From TrEMBL:
This is Heptosyltransferase. It comes from the Bacteria. It comes from Fundidesulfovibrio putealis. GO terms for molecular function: ADP-heptose-lipopolysaccharide heptosyltransferase activity. The keyword Glycoprotein does not apply. The keyword Zinc-finger does not apply. GO terms for cellular component: cytosol.
């Protein structure tokens, strides 16, 4: 937006001179149609979790998205095949974006590391940047899914729980065959659904009553 023009100027001033000559600053200078037209002609969009990110993904433009602790790529990541997400993973996450941060926005620091800049530039090999997890988007039978390609130790602790929940959702939606068609959604017939996950999706009236109703209507 126009309110961010000064920030754009400051960013441009930090670029090497050879890049500054090729910068076209459109901050706050496009309407919706012009923004969509501009994005559609790009090879890549490097962006935080913004409306521009979602518009670019909708237009089929490859996105590399940067997520701080206040946003979670599994919830609001770019929708589409083959996008890249770098997700901050900190002990204090998640947090509320509008609340003051008592940790000095520690989740921002990894994005300034040399390791991240090398990874962003496509350098092969090496350890993932500390404090960041890398994901690429794809689809399973339930929709978009973020699959990790780089994770620091402990960052994937919730992956198995997420897999089980998606498996239960597939079964709850009467899509057992749908789950079998998708390698990204596990079929938990052998291991059984997790009761805690089941409680999130199924209320007692859903399977006790012939004509399911909300609990308050029954009582």
């Amino acid at each position: 937006t126009a309110s961010e023009r000064q920030s754009a100027k400051e960013l441009s001033a930090r670029l090497p001179a050879r890049l500054q000559a090729n910068v076209r600053d459109l901050t706050g200078r496009t309407d919706w149609a012009a923004l969509a037209d501009t994005l559609a002609g790009l090879d890549l969009v490097l962006t935080p979790d913004t409306g521009v990110m979602h518009l670019a993904a909708h237009l089929g433009v490859p996105v590399t998205a940067l997520f701080l602790s206040s946003a979670w790529c599994h919830e609001t990541g770019p929708y589409g095949e083959g996008h890249t997400v770098w997700q901050a993973v900190t002990d204090c996450a998640p947090c509320l974006e509008s609340a003051p941060c008592p940790h000095g926005v520690a989740c921002l620091e990894p994005f300034g590391s040399r390791e991240f800049l090398r990874a962003l530039g496509g350098a092969a090999g090496g350890e993932p940047p500390a404090g960041l997890a890398g994901y690429r988007t794809g689809f399973d039978a339930l929709g978009v899914v973020c699959r990790a390609f780089a994770q620091p130790p402990g960052a994937g602790a919730g992956d198995e729980s997420r897999r089980r929940l998606r498996a239960l959702a597939a079964r709850y939606l009467a899509t057992r065959s749908l789950a079998a068609r998708s390698p990204g959604v596990a079929d938990d017939r052998d291991e059984g659904p997790d009761p805690d996950w089941a409680d999130l999706l199924v209320e007692d009236p859903d399977f006790l009553l012939h004509n399911p109703q909300a609990s308050f209507e029954v009582l």
